[in-house]
Amino acid sequence: MFTDEDGGPDEYADEVLAVVERIPPGRVMSYGDIAEYVGRGGPRQVGSVMSAWGGGVPWWRVVRADGSPASGHEVRALSHYAAEATPLRPGSDRVDMRKARWDGESGG
């Protein structure tokens, strides 16, 4: 799934990864935001792409709709958020989506 005939990412995976690479430091997009931006698939499909191919892109900038990072990667994601000054919800380990959500267009 999401693999081309040569074993690399297919066209959809390439599109998802290209969007993730463009998310500026300190900003995030939800899985659903990315699916909407590329115009196909949904949050689960984006999650599958990230699971298979996301290691080479800034994966911590892709979060659940509630601002929480990918399961099992919370500690590493939080260190990236601190380094990039990503806004977090007060008293929480979740990203403040109102402040940090990137629309895919603005510079950051």
Please tell me about this protein's structure:
- With 108 residues, the chain is mostly helical.
- Helix content is 43%, strand content 4%.
- The chain contains five helices and two strands.
- The chain has helices at 11-22, 31-38, 43-53, 74-84, 97-100, and strands spanning 29-30, 62-63.
- The chain has a two-stranded parallel sheet with strand order 1-2.
- It starts with 10 loop residues before the first helix and ends in an 8-residue tail after the last helix.
- The model has no long low-confidence stretch (mean pLDDT 93).
Question: Could you give the topology of this structure?
Answer:
Layout: H1 11-22, E1 29-30, H2 31-38, H3 43-53, E2 62-63, H4 74-84, H5 97-100
Parallel strand pairs: 1-2
Helix pairs in contact: 1-2, 1-3, 2-3
List its traits.
108 residues, mainly alpha, two-stranded parallel ribbon, 43% helix, globular
TL;DR?
The chain is mainly alpha-helical and about 110 residues long.
The residue-averaged pLDDT reads 93
Protein structure class: mainly alpha
Radius of gyration: 13 Å
**How many strands, which pairing sense, and closed or not: the largest β-sheet?**
2 strands, parallel
